[in-house]
Write a sequence for this structure.
């Protein structure tokens, strides 16, 4: 039968959908609030969940909803 894949020097798991450069760009765009997660996902042709998975949770600040004129009263 042979050796298992790891014994032959192979690592398991899927390859990431975003490259390291793409993940870095996504983080920059998100942090600068230039693009929404939806827009970033559309740029890279991936689902929003993939973008969320690549964002650094230690640096990412949750966005606050925009205030409307009715909410300021």
């Amino acid at each position: 039968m042979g050796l298992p894949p790891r014994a032959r020097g192979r690592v398991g798991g899927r390859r990431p959908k975003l490259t390291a450069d793409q993940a870095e760009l996504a983080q920059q765009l998100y942090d600068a609030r230039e693009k929404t997660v939806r827009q970033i996902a559309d740029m890279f042709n991936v689902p929003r969940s993939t973008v969320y998975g690549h964002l650094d949770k230690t640096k990412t600040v949750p966005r606050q909803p925009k205030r409307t004129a009715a909410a300021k009263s």
